[in-house]
Amino acid sequence: MITSRNKILSLILFPILGCVLVFWSMDHSSNSPASSEDGIVVREDLIQRTTIAGTVVPFRKTIITAPYNGYVKRMYVKVGDTVKQGDPIVTVVQSLQSSDNVFPVRSPFDGIVVQVEKSEGEFIKEGDPKDFILRIDDLSTLYVSANSPEIDRVKVKINQEAVIRASAILNKTYKGIIKELSLAAKENEQWGRSQVVEFPIKIEILDKDETIRPGMSVIIDIVTGKKEKVLTLRHEYIHQEKDQQFVILTSGNRQNIKTGLQNEETIEIIEGLKEGDAIRKVDFTQLGTTE
């Protein structure tokens, strides 16, 4: 009799216990923490940058050429010398045997002699820029000369901040600010056929030192947008359907969102999500079959 009663209780309790376990499992899975593939909406500073290449240039420079065909009679300066406006720098004569008084060529502005290409007694040609005598740079201010692609033109503005890295100077960056931005584009031939439209820009180096020099190649990160403490999510968790962006929550539900500022990694979430929301990663292998 007892055995029959136990069998009856077992037949009643096992189904009930099974249902309880199923519901517990469903509830537990819905509240389980996000997997390593899931993304989390976080609050952080978001910085948008545009990266371009450029070259360091001085505030101004000049090359000294011969006023006429002749010879270098006397060189008053050497590389590294500081000169003032009006200082004599070189004397050129038509004949080294001439005893005539010749007025020296003088520096047009304050600067530093950065190159000397000729020696005393050497022949030089009149006004030949490729056959110049020496070069003087005004290093009171250094700039970066660069070209912004047309696709980034609307983002780049006067007084925006920039981070400058010189290829020859490791583990150091310089601060910069955009001082000039061309209003007209220039066209450059690329590969001999297509045209590349670019806008010349000039960036002042704010913390120059003795290491960075004119002619150096640099990479510039221009800060084109910055927001503090905003909700962000990485791009690989965001779907695009025509003009609507949306995400798939870990619950499986679709959530439409509105986005704002973005950079190469993350995008600002303006509406639709809150901090801490867990989002499923976009399955790019299924995009073609779901559309």
Shape: elongated
Distance between the termini: 64 Å
Largest beta-sheet details: 6 strands, antiparallel, barrel
Which residues form runs of ≥5 with pLDDT under 50?
A: 20-33
Protein model, in words:
- The protein is mainly beta.
- The protein folds into 3 domains: 72 residues, conserved putative lor/sdh protein from methanococcus maripaludis s2 fold, CATH 2.40.420; 93 residues, Efflux pump adaptor protein, beta barrel domain (Elongation Factor Tu (Ef-tu), domain 3); 67 residues, RNA polymerase II/Efflux pump adaptor protein, barrel-sandwich hybrid domain (OB fold (Dihydrolipoamide Acetyltransferase, E2P), Beta Barrel), CATH 2.40.50.100.
- 11% of the residues lie in helices and 48% in strands.
- It is built from 2 helices and 19 strands.
- The strands form 3 sheets. The protein has a 6-stranded antiparallel barrel. Strands 6-5-3-8 form a 4-stranded antiparallel β-sheet, with no helix packed on it.
- The longest helix has 29 residues.
- 17% of the residues are buried.
- About 5% of the residues have low confidence.
